[in-house]
Write a structure and sequence with these properties.
The protein is α/β, with parallel strands linked by helices and 345 residues long. It has five helices and 40 strands.
Length: 345
Protein backbone atom coordinates (compact mmCIF):
# COMPACT_ATOMS: atom_id res chain seq x y z
CA UNK A 1 0.00 0.00 0.00
CA UNK A 2 1.27 3.48 -0.90
CA UNK A 3 1.20 6.47 1.46
CA UNK A 4 1.61 10.12 0.43
CA UNK A 5 0.86 13.45 2.06
CA UNK A 6 -1.68 16.03 0.91
CA UNK A 7 1.24 18.33 0.10
CA UNK A 8 2.55 15.67 -2.28
CA UNK A 9 -0.93 15.32 -3.80
CA UNK A 10 -0.97 19.07 -4.44
CA UNK A 11 2.41 18.83 -6.17
CA UNK A 12 1.38 15.83 -8.29
CA UNK A 13 -1.90 17.40 -9.41
CA UNK A 14 -0.64 21.01 -9.51
CA UNK A 15 -3.52 21.98 -7.26
CA UNK A 16 -3.81 24.44 -4.34
CA UNK A 17 -3.33 22.92 -0.89
CA UNK A 18 -5.87 23.81 1.80
CA UNK A 19 -5.39 22.68 5.40
CA UNK A 20 -2.87 20.16 6.77
CA UNK A 21 -0.26 19.37 4.13
CA UNK A 22 1.33 16.70 6.36
CA UNK A 23 -1.85 14.64 6.49
CA UNK A 24 -1.18 11.14 5.10
CA UNK A 25 -3.53 9.33 2.71
CA UNK A 26 -3.37 5.80 1.32
CA UNK A 27 -5.65 5.98 -1.69
CA UNK A 28 -8.53 7.58 -3.59
CA UNK A 29 -12.19 7.11 -2.68
CA UNK A 30 -15.55 8.04 -4.17
CA UNK A 31 -18.24 10.33 -2.65
CA UNK A 32 -20.43 7.24 -2.21
CA UNK A 33 -17.83 5.46 -0.03
CA UNK A 34 -15.82 8.20 1.71
CA UNK A 35 -12.88 7.30 3.98
CA UNK A 36 -10.87 9.49 6.34
CA UNK A 37 -7.57 7.89 5.23
CA UNK A 38 -8.17 8.54 1.51
CA UNK A 39 -8.75 11.59 -0.65
CA UNK A 40 -12.18 11.94 -2.24
CA UNK A 41 -12.09 13.32 -5.80
CA UNK A 42 -15.22 15.39 -6.47
CA UNK A 43 -16.02 17.01 -9.82
CA UNK A 44 -19.57 18.06 -8.92
CA UNK A 45 -19.46 20.48 -5.98
CA UNK A 46 -23.11 19.81 -5.15
CA UNK A 47 -22.13 16.47 -3.54
CA UNK A 48 -19.69 18.06 -1.06
CA UNK A 49 -22.27 18.62 1.73
CA UNK A 50 -22.88 14.86 1.83
CA UNK A 51 -19.21 14.03 2.49
CA UNK A 52 -18.12 14.03 6.16
CA UNK A 53 -15.91 16.99 7.09
CA UNK A 54 -13.21 14.58 8.29
CA UNK A 55 -12.65 13.31 4.71
CA UNK A 56 -10.07 15.25 2.63
CA UNK A 57 -11.33 16.18 -0.82
CA UNK A 58 -9.99 17.25 -4.18
CA UNK A 59 -12.54 19.52 -5.85
CA UNK A 60 -13.15 22.69 -7.84
CA UNK A 61 -11.76 26.12 -6.98
CA UNK A 62 -13.54 27.85 -4.10
CA UNK A 63 -15.49 24.75 -3.06
CA UNK A 64 -13.55 23.63 0.02
CA UNK A 65 -14.43 25.10 3.40
CA UNK A 66 -13.67 23.78 6.89
CA UNK A 67 -11.76 20.69 5.78
CA UNK A 68 -8.42 19.52 4.35
CA UNK A 69 -8.12 19.23 0.63
CA UNK A 70 -6.88 20.32 -2.78
CA UNK A 71 -8.54 22.78 -5.15
CA UNK A 72 -7.99 22.83 -8.91
CA UNK A 73 -9.78 24.00 -12.05
CA UNK A 74 -10.52 20.55 -13.50
CA UNK A 75 -10.54 18.05 -10.61
CA UNK A 76 -11.42 15.04 -12.78
CA UNK A 77 -8.10 15.44 -14.62
CA UNK A 78 -6.31 14.92 -11.29
CA UNK A 79 -7.10 11.21 -11.55
CA UNK A 80 -4.69 10.84 -14.47
CA UNK A 81 -1.74 11.86 -12.29
CA UNK A 82 -3.00 10.60 -8.94
CA UNK A 83 -4.30 7.07 -9.55
CA UNK A 84 -0.98 5.60 -10.79
CA UNK A 85 0.53 6.40 -7.38
CA UNK A 86 -1.85 3.87 -5.81
CA UNK A 87 -1.83 1.22 -8.53
CA UNK A 88 -0.95 -2.09 -6.85
CA UNK A 89 -0.90 -4.20 -10.02
CA UNK A 90 2.38 -5.97 -10.73
CA UNK A 91 4.32 -5.07 -13.83
CA UNK A 92 5.09 -7.95 -16.19
CA UNK A 93 8.75 -8.98 -15.69
CA UNK A 94 10.99 -8.09 -18.63
CA UNK A 95 12.25 -10.82 -20.88
CA UNK A 96 10.76 -13.95 -22.42
CA UNK A 97 9.18 -16.51 -20.12
CA UNK A 98 10.72 -19.99 -20.47
CA UNK A 99 7.13 -21.23 -20.83
CA UNK A 100 6.51 -19.10 -23.95
CA UNK A 101 7.10 -20.28 -27.53
CA UNK A 102 8.89 -17.83 -29.80
CA UNK A 103 9.64 -18.87 -33.39
CA UNK A 104 13.27 -18.45 -34.32
CA UNK A 105 12.36 -16.15 -37.24
CA UNK A 106 10.71 -13.60 -34.93
CA UNK A 107 12.21 -10.14 -34.39
CA UNK A 108 11.95 -9.03 -30.76
CA UNK A 109 12.79 -5.45 -29.70
CA UNK A 110 14.52 -4.27 -26.54
CA UNK A 111 12.79 -4.19 -23.16
CA UNK A 112 10.03 -6.61 -24.17
CA UNK A 113 8.02 -8.73 -21.72
CA UNK A 114 6.51 -11.98 -23.01
CA UNK A 115 4.54 -13.94 -20.42
CA UNK A 116 4.04 -17.67 -19.95
CA UNK A 117 1.92 -19.53 -22.48
CA UNK A 118 2.43 -16.97 -25.26
CA UNK A 119 2.87 -18.25 -28.82
CA UNK A 120 4.90 -16.07 -31.21
CA UNK A 121 4.58 -17.46 -34.73
CA UNK A 122 6.84 -17.28 -37.77
CA UNK A 123 7.86 -13.87 -39.09
CA UNK A 124 6.48 -11.82 -36.19
CA UNK A 125 7.98 -8.37 -35.51
CA UNK A 126 7.63 -7.02 -31.96
CA UNK A 127 8.84 -3.49 -31.23
CA UNK A 128 10.65 -2.14 -28.18
CA UNK A 129 8.93 -2.00 -24.81
CA UNK A 130 6.03 -4.23 -25.82
CA UNK A 131 4.25 -6.21 -23.10
CA UNK A 132 2.50 -9.51 -23.86
CA UNK A 133 0.80 -10.94 -20.81
CA UNK A 134 0.13 -14.66 -20.36
CA UNK A 135 -1.39 -16.83 -23.12
CA UNK A 136 -1.32 -14.31 -25.96
CA UNK A 137 -1.39 -15.86 -29.45
CA UNK A 138 0.47 -13.92 -32.17
CA UNK A 139 -0.06 -15.33 -35.67
CA UNK A 140 2.22 -15.43 -38.70
CA UNK A 141 3.59 -12.14 -39.92
CA UNK A 142 2.01 -10.02 -37.18
CA UNK A 143 3.65 -6.66 -36.42
CA UNK A 144 3.35 -4.97 -33.00
CA UNK A 145 4.63 -1.40 -32.60
CA UNK A 146 6.76 0.05 -29.80
CA UNK A 147 5.22 0.43 -26.36
CA UNK A 148 2.06 -1.57 -27.02
CA UNK A 149 0.44 -3.55 -24.21
CA UNK A 150 -1.34 -6.80 -25.04
CA UNK A 151 -3.28 -8.24 -22.10
CA UNK A 152 -3.80 -11.90 -21.28
CA UNK A 153 -5.71 -14.19 -23.67
CA UNK A 154 -5.60 -11.82 -26.66
CA UNK A 155 -5.53 -13.43 -30.11
CA UNK A 156 -3.82 -11.69 -33.03
CA UNK A 157 -4.41 -13.60 -36.26
CA UNK A 158 -2.03 -13.75 -39.20
CA UNK A 159 -0.68 -10.51 -40.74
CA UNK A 160 -2.42 -8.18 -38.29
CA UNK A 161 -0.58 -4.88 -37.91
CA UNK A 162 -0.63 -3.17 -34.50
CA UNK A 163 0.73 0.37 -34.17
CA UNK A 164 2.66 2.03 -31.36
CA UNK A 165 1.29 2.39 -27.81
CA UNK A 166 -1.78 0.31 -28.61
CA UNK A 167 -3.57 -1.32 -25.69
CA UNK A 168 -5.62 -4.47 -26.22
CA UNK A 169 -7.47 -5.74 -23.16
CA UNK A 170 -8.08 -9.36 -22.22
CA UNK A 171 -9.98 -11.56 -24.64
CA UNK A 172 -9.69 -9.25 -27.66
CA UNK A 173 -9.63 -11.10 -30.99
CA UNK A 174 -8.14 -9.25 -33.95
CA UNK A 175 -8.06 -10.58 -37.49
CA UNK A 176 -10.38 -13.57 -37.27
CA UNK A 177 -12.40 -14.27 -40.41
CA UNK A 178 -15.08 -11.84 -41.50
CA UNK A 179 -18.66 -13.11 -41.80
CA UNK A 180 -19.32 -13.40 -45.54
CA UNK A 181 -21.46 -15.86 -47.51
CA UNK A 182 -23.22 -16.01 -50.87
CA UNK A 183 -26.02 -18.28 -52.05
CA UNK A 184 -25.11 -20.62 -54.89
CA UNK A 185 -27.37 -21.80 -57.69
CA UNK A 186 -28.71 -24.61 -55.51
CA UNK A 187 -29.63 -22.29 -52.66
CA UNK A 188 -26.74 -23.33 -50.42
CA UNK A 189 -24.71 -20.87 -48.37
CA UNK A 190 -21.12 -20.77 -49.61
CA UNK A 191 -18.39 -19.10 -47.60
CA UNK A 192 -16.47 -16.23 -49.21
CA UNK A 193 -12.72 -16.54 -48.46
CA UNK A 194 -11.52 -13.82 -46.08
CA UNK A 195 -7.92 -13.11 -47.07
CA UNK A 196 -7.46 -9.48 -45.95
CA UNK A 197 -5.86 -8.03 -42.83
CA UNK A 198 -6.48 -5.69 -39.91
CA UNK A 199 -4.53 -2.48 -39.35
CA UNK A 200 -4.74 -0.87 -35.91
CA UNK A 201 -2.96 2.48 -35.87
CA UNK A 202 -1.04 4.20 -33.03
CA UNK A 203 -2.57 4.97 -29.62
CA UNK A 204 -5.70 2.86 -30.09
CA UNK A 205 -7.30 1.10 -27.12
CA UNK A 206 -9.70 -1.84 -27.44
CA UNK A 207 -11.80 -3.10 -24.51
CA UNK A 208 -12.08 -6.66 -23.24
CA UNK A 209 -13.68 -9.36 -25.40
CA UNK A 210 -14.09 -7.10 -28.42
CA UNK A 211 -13.59 -8.48 -31.93
CA UNK A 212 -12.20 -6.87 -35.07
CA UNK A 213 -12.58 -9.03 -38.20
CA UNK A 214 -10.08 -9.29 -41.02
CA UNK A 215 -11.12 -7.86 -44.37
CA UNK A 216 -12.40 -10.01 -47.21
CA UNK A 217 -9.57 -8.35 -49.17
CA UNK A 218 -7.68 -5.18 -48.37
CA UNK A 219 -7.81 -4.20 -44.70
CA UNK A 220 -10.11 -3.41 -41.81
CA UNK A 221 -8.69 -0.20 -40.28
CA UNK A 222 -8.92 1.40 -36.85
CA UNK A 223 -7.63 4.98 -36.98
CA UNK A 224 -5.06 6.60 -34.71
CA UNK A 225 -6.20 7.45 -31.19
CA UNK A 226 -9.57 5.70 -31.40
CA UNK A 227 -10.91 4.09 -28.22
CA UNK A 228 -13.21 1.05 -28.41
CA UNK A 229 -15.17 -0.28 -25.42
CA UNK A 230 -15.64 -3.86 -24.28
CA UNK A 231 -17.81 -6.41 -26.10
CA UNK A 232 -17.82 -4.44 -29.33
CA UNK A 233 -17.79 -6.00 -32.80
CA UNK A 234 -16.13 -4.39 -35.82
CA UNK A 235 -16.94 -6.36 -38.97
CA UNK A 236 -14.79 -6.99 -42.04
CA UNK A 237 -13.59 -4.08 -44.19
CA UNK A 238 -14.77 -1.40 -41.74
CA UNK A 239 -12.86 1.86 -41.64
CA UNK A 240 -13.00 3.64 -38.28
CA UNK A 241 -11.48 7.13 -38.36
CA UNK A 242 -9.04 8.83 -36.00
CA UNK A 243 -9.88 9.86 -32.43
CA UNK A 244 -13.28 8.15 -32.40
CA UNK A 245 -15.05 6.82 -29.32
CA UNK A 246 -16.92 3.54 -29.79
CA UNK A 247 -18.58 2.56 -26.50
CA UNK A 248 -19.24 -1.02 -25.37
CA UNK A 249 -21.79 -3.39 -26.94
CA UNK A 250 -21.65 -1.59 -30.30
CA UNK A 251 -21.90 -3.61 -33.54
CA UNK A 252 -20.52 -2.12 -36.75
CA UNK A 253 -21.54 -3.91 -39.97
CA UNK A 254 -19.23 -4.86 -42.79
CA UNK A 255 -17.65 -2.09 -44.91
CA UNK A 256 -19.13 0.67 -42.73
CA UNK A 257 -17.19 3.94 -42.55
CA UNK A 258 -16.99 6.19 -39.48
CA UNK A 259 -15.42 9.64 -39.82
CA UNK A 260 -12.75 11.17 -37.57
CA UNK A 261 -13.80 12.35 -34.12
CA UNK A 262 -17.17 10.58 -34.08
CA UNK A 263 -18.80 9.08 -30.97
CA UNK A 264 -20.88 5.89 -31.05
CA UNK A 265 -22.66 5.32 -27.72
CA UNK A 266 -23.44 1.97 -26.10
CA UNK A 267 -25.53 -0.72 -27.80
CA UNK A 268 -25.78 1.22 -31.06
CA UNK A 269 -25.83 -0.72 -34.31
CA UNK A 270 -24.50 0.40 -37.70
CA UNK A 271 -25.65 -1.39 -40.84
CA UNK A 272 -23.36 -2.72 -43.57
CA UNK A 273 -21.89 -0.23 -46.05
CA UNK A 274 -23.18 2.83 -44.16
CA UNK A 275 -21.01 5.97 -44.18
CA UNK A 276 -20.94 8.18 -41.09
CA UNK A 277 -19.39 11.64 -41.39
CA UNK A 278 -16.81 13.40 -39.24
CA UNK A 279 -17.71 14.55 -35.73
CA UNK A 280 -21.00 12.65 -35.61
CA UNK A 281 -22.58 11.60 -32.30
CA UNK A 282 -24.74 8.46 -32.33
CA UNK A 283 -26.86 8.07 -29.19
CA UNK A 284 -27.07 4.80 -27.27
CA UNK A 285 -29.19 1.98 -28.75
CA UNK A 286 -29.57 3.79 -32.07
CA UNK A 287 -29.81 1.88 -35.31
CA UNK A 288 -27.99 3.59 -38.19
CA UNK A 289 -29.27 2.45 -41.58
CA UNK A 290 -28.25 5.28 -43.93
CA UNK A 291 -25.63 7.97 -44.47
CA UNK A 292 -25.12 10.43 -41.59
CA UNK A 293 -23.67 13.83 -42.54
CA UNK A 294 -20.79 15.53 -40.73
CA UNK A 295 -21.43 16.91 -37.26
CA UNK A 296 -24.95 15.56 -36.72
CA UNK A 297 -26.30 14.15 -33.45
CA UNK A 298 -28.63 11.23 -34.19
CA UNK A 299 -30.74 8.82 -32.15
CA UNK A 300 -33.51 6.26 -32.44
CA UNK A 301 -34.26 3.47 -34.88
CA UNK A 302 -33.88 4.15 -37.67
CA UNK A 303 -31.47 6.85 -36.51
CA UNK A 304 -32.36 10.45 -37.42
CA UNK A 305 -31.48 13.87 -36.08
CA UNK A 306 -31.87 13.87 -32.32
CA UNK A 307 -34.25 16.87 -32.15
CA UNK A 308 -36.58 15.18 -34.63
CA UNK A 309 -36.43 11.87 -32.78
CA UNK A 310 -37.17 13.60 -29.47
CA UNK A 311 -40.33 15.16 -30.93
CA UNK A 312 -41.37 11.79 -32.34
CA UNK A 313 -40.90 10.03 -28.99
CA UNK A 314 -42.87 12.76 -27.19
CA UNK A 315 -45.72 12.30 -29.67
CA UNK A 316 -45.56 8.52 -29.37
CA UNK A 317 -46.02 8.70 -25.60
CA UNK A 318 -49.30 10.55 -26.18
CA UNK A 319 -50.80 7.75 -28.30
CA UNK A 320 -52.68 5.99 -25.42
CA UNK A 321 -54.19 9.32 -24.36
CA UNK A 322 -55.20 10.15 -27.94
CA UNK A 323 -56.79 6.72 -28.41
CA UNK A 324 -58.84 7.19 -25.26
CA UNK A 325 -59.94 10.64 -26.42
CA UNK A 326 -60.93 9.17 -29.78
CA UNK A 327 -63.07 6.52 -28.09
CA UNK A 328 -64.81 9.16 -25.97
CA UNK A 329 -65.50 11.26 -29.06
CA UNK A 330 -66.89 8.22 -30.88
CA UNK A 331 -69.26 7.49 -27.98
CA UNK A 332 -70.45 11.10 -27.96
CA UNK A 333 -71.02 11.07 -31.72
CA UNK A 334 -72.90 7.79 -31.44
CA UNK A 335 -75.14 9.38 -28.80
CA UNK A 336 -75.77 12.44 -30.97
CA UNK A 337 -76.61 10.29 -33.98
CA UNK A 338 -78.86 8.02 -31.93
CA UNK A 339 -76.87 4.83 -32.58
CA UNK A 340 -77.34 1.96 -30.15
CA UNK A 341 -74.89 -0.81 -29.31
CA UNK A 342 -76.96 -3.12 -31.54
CA UNK A 343 -76.64 -0.68 -34.47
CA UNK A 344 -72.86 -0.60 -34.11
CA UNK A 345 -72.75 -4.40 -34.00
Amino acid sequence: MSFITLAEVAAITRGRLIGDGDRVICGVCSPELPRDDMICVVWENKVLPGIPASVPVLSGVGAISGRDGIEMERPKEALIALLPRFDMRRNEPLGISPRAFVHESGTIGAGVAIGPGCVISEGVVIGSGVVLQANVYVGHGVEIGDGSHISALVTLHDFTKIGKRVRLHSGVVVGDEGFGYIQDGEGQRVKIPQIGAVIIEDDVEVGANSTIDRATFGATRIGRGTKIGSLTHIAHNCDIGEDCIVVGFVAVGGSARIGDGSVVAGQAGIADHVTIGRGVTIAGRSGVTKVIKDGLVVSGFPAREHAEETKFQASLRRVPELLERTKRLERRMDGINGKSEEDKA
